[in-house]
Amino acid sequence: MRFPLALTVKIARHIIKHKLARTPKFAMVLQLEPLHTCNLTCTGCGRIREYSTSLKDMVPLEQCLGAAAECDAPMVSICGGEPLIYPKIEELIQGLRDQGRIIYVCTNGVFMRKKMRDYMAAHYSPEMETKLAQLVKDELVSEKEAEQIRKSDEAAKKKVVIKPTKWMYWNVHVDGLEYTHDLIVEREGVFKECIAAIKMAKVLGYQVATNTTVYKETEVQEIEDMFKFLSHLNVDGHTISPGYDYDAAKKDMVARRGFDPKEFFLTRELTRQKFKDIEKWGEMFTIFGTPVYQEFLAGKRELTCTAWAIPTYNVKGWKAPCYLMTDGHYPKYQEMLGTVNWEKYGVVDGVARDPRCENCMVHCGYDPSGALSNKPRDTWINMKYNFGSKPAPYAEGYKVKAFNGVSIGKGHLAEAKAAVNKEMSGAKSAFARGGNDIVPDTAGGGCGTGDSSQRDDLLKKIEAAKDK
Ligand code: SF4
Ligand code: SF4
Fold first, then answer.
1. CB–CB of 312/362 below 8 Å?
2. If you take atom 3 of ligand 1, which residue's CA is the nearest one?
């Protein structure tokens, strides 16, 4: 099976319960943003502008758990910001487990190894030595760290930690191979750390997924190579979604100056070109997301947006209408469901009800549409896909030259900084924010799609610098 049986049954029960009760709208996945602070400053991060005033704000633990109970989604995706910065992340995961939910911890991977060492220290016993020895041999844990794990004190043993369980996935943000990924997250070495964290997690028995956003400049071949590489590391599944800009200013430029939209953002047509192989990928790799949504991405069908099924909860409340757009925040999920005019959003028969939705095909709007479809044929292909055998790890994935950036001396920051300083001196690039510390309250975080205009500009400048 592509997704573990117990988890599939839980989700299926939830859908059947609501269909029998004829509930018109209900939550499938809660996108929980306990904070918007991040240790990285990715240029395309959609949360940087939107929540720039609330970075120090956090949703209290009880409120996070209350939001999950209120919408009762069987799955909770803890995102942000970087959720591993949230001071009560362990208690949050434990609390959600106590509620019986499936949990995805959407992380940039930088703090994962630290959290897993905490787990090892809390649960150390001589039986753990084999795994510890392997981690040291593979240079995923240093000798010094191994000693600290062995000599963990009472405080370390009592700590609430993130334990491996089939009900939780690390969901690691990987947007390409080393050069591309480090470029997008704007720090060399992040890809290497993600891969080390994924390897360590697999040794310790965690479930690991990855999430990838495909941008206008993303090379399709690189995405396939990335899947091959991740698959040979025994990654359990992959989420992939098109990046999407709905920046009104860009639309205005198109309208007033007659520019081709393709120059600016991922249109539906471009998305379909990028995702033309998704069904093949779904056979080769464990792609999470329904085959109905894959057909939609590949341009074989239309779907209607069901953004209410993947609601977002953050420091301001329930965000409407969706993860991407904010027309308001509501204190209660049911209030949001009842107040928002959902008929105003999405694309129906090729016509956008809201101009900002025109090119959107993101998973948080359309993946649940695939899962909730009432058509018998859709139910059948969804079941067949999920109950079908899980693709084997890609045996030749080790051949992929994944470390094609800073690891082989081909770092990008010096080159990019030079390009930025020379040609973008007035632009406010995230490179200028720089630094390794947690970002100050002028910048925020939120993995996922958003305005990528800064990154688009930057990539063009880097390309120009390379050509000289
Ligand atoms: S179509 Fe996209 S942007 Fe529009 S409401 Fe749905 S998810 Fe949001
Ligand atoms: S996309 Fe945003 S939240 Fe995610 S790692 Fe980058 S800066 Fe942090």
1. no
2. 357
Calculate how far, in angstroms, residue 79's C-alpha sits from the geometric centre of ligand 2: 9
Find where tokens 């770092």 sit: 411
- Numbered ranges of CATH 3.20.20.70 in the chain: 5-123+161-399
95-112 average pLDDT score:
97
Residue carrying the six token digits 């105003």: 344
Tell me if 353 sits within 8 A of 347, measured CB to CB. yes
Q: In terms of DSSP bridges, do strands 312-314 and 29-32 run parallel, antiparallel, or are they unpaired?
A: parallel
Which residue matches tokens 């090119």? 359
Q: Calculate mean pLDDT across residues 36-41.
A: 85
Q: Please report, for residues 62, 317, 334, the alpha-carbon distance to residue 67 in angstroms, rounded to integers and kept in the order given.
A: 9, 9, 11
Task: Give the ligand at the shortest distance from the Cα of 50.
Answer: 2
pTM: 0.87
Q: How high is the pLDDT of residue 433?
A: 31
Rounded Cα distance between 305 and 345, Å, is 7
Tell me the pLDDT tens digit for each residue of 54-88. 557 899 999 999 999 999 999 999 998 899 999 99
Which structure tokens are listed for 297? 């991405």
Which parts of 127-241 fold into alpha helices (H)?
Answer: 129-137, 143-150, 154-158, 178-185, 190-204, 220-232
Q: Is the CB of 80 under 6 A from ligand 2?
A: yes
User: Residue 465's pLDDT is what?
Assistant: 53
CA of 223 to the centre of ligand 1 (A): 24
Architecture of the domain whose range is 5-123+161-399: Alpha-Beta Barrel (3.20)
